[in-house]
Amino acid sequence: MDGMAWIGQFWLTTLTWLIGLAAAFGLLARLMPCNPGMYWWKYRRGAITDAVYWLVVPLVLRVLSTLMLAAGIVFLRGGQRPHWLPAQGWPLWQQCMAILLLQDVLLYWIHRLFHRDGAWRFHAVHHSATVLDWTSTARFHPVNHLLAFSLADVVVLLLGFGPEALVVLAPFNLLYSAMVHANLNWTFGPLRFLFASPVFHRWHHTMREEGIDKNFAATFPILDVVFGTFHMPRGRLPDEFGNGEADFPEGFWGQFLHPFRSDDVSPQARRRTRVIRVASILGLAGLLCGGTYGTLRLAEQDRQQTDAAQQHRHEQRARHASELSQAAKASPLESPVFCKK
Asked: How confident is the model at residue 101 (pLDDT cuts 50, 70, 90)?
C-alpha cells in the first residue's frame, strides 16, 4: 500500500510539473521560438515516448539509485555515515552551490564519455528527438541516466553533502534542464559563456558535425570554453536535430533495446554489441547484488543500534531502581518514595 501511495504521489507531482512546463514553454515558444513551427504536440509518437521517460522510467531509477547509494556506503564507508567533507556543517546555500559546481564538472566528463564508442549507443537515445523541445528533457536510456545523473547524486552524498541540499536543488535542475531543451531563441548574450542557454544546448543536439560533439556542460559553459568544446556561431541558429540514424526506433522499448542490438554484420560491430550486452548484464547484476547486500547490511546496523539504545535505557532504569532501593534501605525517611508520599 505504501508503495502504491508513493507511485501515485510521484505521478501527481510529475503531472503537475508537466502541466506547468507545457503552459510556460508553450507560450514562450510561440513568442520567441528558435525554430518556428517545431512544437512537441505536433509529433504525437515522440510525445508518447517522452511521457514514458517522464512517468515510468524514474520509478525504476529511484530503486536502482537507492541500491547504488547503499552499496557505496557499505563498500566505501564500511556502513558509516559519509563525512569525507565537512559539508553538512555548511549553510544550505553553500552546499547547493558546491554541489552545482561539482556535479557540473563530473557530468561534463561523463557526457563526453557517452559520446564515444559503445557508450554512444545509450546516449543516442537522448539525441534521437528530431523535434527538439522541453519534453525531450527526460529522454535518457536508463543506463545513461544511472551512470550520469544518479551517479552524480550518489557521489555528492558519499562525499558528505546533506540529502536536503539535493532536495532543494531538484526543482532548479528540472526547470533549468527543461529550459535549455525548450524551443527558444535565447542566447543569454554576454552571459552565454557563464550559463547554458537554449541555443547553446540546441547546437549540441544538431546533426551537423560541427555541433554534435560540442557544448557538453549542463549548466556552466565555461567548462566548454576551458576544454575547447564551446560552439555558438554568431548570427546562426541550429535547425536540424537528431542522432543521424534514419531508422532509429521511435518507441520506448525499441530505444531501450537498441544499444543491445546491431544491424551491422561486421565482426567488430558484433563484438562490440556482445561486450555491451555482457557488461550491462554484469553491471546490473553487480548493482542488484551489491545494493541488496548494502541495504540489508545497513538495516542490520540500524537494528543493532536500536537494540543497543533499548538495552542502554533498560540498564539506566535498572540502575536507577537499584539506587532507590539502596537509599530506602539505608534511611527510609530520606527515601524519594517516602518523601513523595
From this structure: very high
Q: How far apart are the first and last CA of the chain?
A: 51
pTM of the entire structure? 0.81
CA atoms within 13 A on the CB side of 212: 18
Q: How far apart are CA 177 and CA 136, in angstroms?
A: 10
Query: Which residue carries 526506433 as its cell?
Result: 249
In a domain, 278, yes or no: no
- Residue 336 located in a structural domain: no
User: Is 299 part of a structural domain of the chain?
Assistant: no
Give the span between the Cα atoms of 33 and 38, in whole angstroms: 8
The rounded distance, in Å, linking the Cα atoms of 67 and 287 is 7
Residue 101's CB: how many other CB atoms inside 10 A? Answer: 13
d(CA 57, CA 7): 12
- Angstrom distances, CA of residue 48 to CA of 119, 235, 250, 308, 327: 25, 34, 10, 52, 77
Q: Supply the range of the domain harboring residue 88.
A: 9-245
**pLDDT tens string 260-281:** 886 655 566 556 566 666 565 6
Contact in structure between 67 and 290 (CB atoms under 8 Å): yes
Residues sharing a CB contact under 8 Å with residue 1, sequence separation 6 or more, in sequence order: none
State the total domains in the chain.
1
